[in-house]
User: Fold Helix-turn-helix domain-containing protein from Cupriavidus gilardii.
Amino acid sequence: MQKTLSKAAVSEGLQKAGLSQAELARRLGVSPQAVTNWLKGQDFPRPDKLLKLSMLLRLDFAELVTQSDEGAPVIAFRKRANTKTTERHLAHAREIGMLLKQLVPFLPPGHSLRPRLDTATTEYAALQRTVAEVRTKLGLGDRAVLDYHHLIGQFKEAGAVLVPVLWGEKQLHANALHIALPAERVTFVFVNLDTKLEDFKFWMAHELAHVYTPYMAGKEEGEDFADAFAGALLFPQPCAIEAYGDAARSKRETSALAALQEHAQHHAISLYTVFCQARNYQRHYDLPPMAIDEVKLHKARNASPAALVSHAMFDRPPPSAREYIAAAEQVFQSDFYVALRAMMRERGIEAGFVQQLLDIGLVDAKAIYAELVR
Assistant:
């Protein structure tokens, strides 16, 4: 629920109280610009200021505040295994969304014509046609290995801002955070670099599905489609045919698992993704099932060592603030720090804002802040 001050109620209250906006700001102990931002809906007063405002203008909360879902940030998480998204997580993400609204005016102009999928279905044949078209657009053959670098340009073209972050392997409950701002027509996608490459690629493909289908934001069907799209894009039917054939011809379960693992390693994706795509192909064409136990498959997957994206990207992780920002701008083509630099110059924001925006520790926020104001 997005809260804004009722401009009409405040104007009427000021008139009745015989106060100017400047005098109101003085009595509240804030800058005149803060009051202007409240009335424009760009910011919202803190509880103590809201209470004082209510008393000064003799307006109750219902008269003073307008509550609306329209234009409110739409939140989606890519959770870690065995974690649960609580209302506290959602409220915290919405707070970040409101901060991002302040950053939007400083972003470079985006594309007016944006790629999108007119229909989003998980029906097997239709989904395979969709991912085949996307792969063609990316310049990839039907059996080519898809790397996350192939997807980066699509995010920018679709009006999404990638924000690579270093949240650690186990510190937070999510490995990716999707915040769509409908009124601003901008989506921010926070992706954690401290994750395994196979997971990172899947999340990137999943998030790309979301930016292709903004009309499904926040809906359960949108999540189902994004998962189905990601798996099929990373390992489409031509690859699944080969994997299924190799597994089905194996006489022992260990040989079948090894066959699927070989495909997973070649494509740098999860063993489970390969298994699911081979099984989807088998079920669609009513073929005999693969003799593979899922419990054993997950054990095999978890036993396989995998490097983190951050370790592959930086020579000596964790990187310095300069190295990290350079990677965000050069590797991920992100305009996030371009906008943040401009915002710092114009509004004089401090390291605390960076800390809240990126959901990181104050020491790291101060290092990033110092690099941006150099």
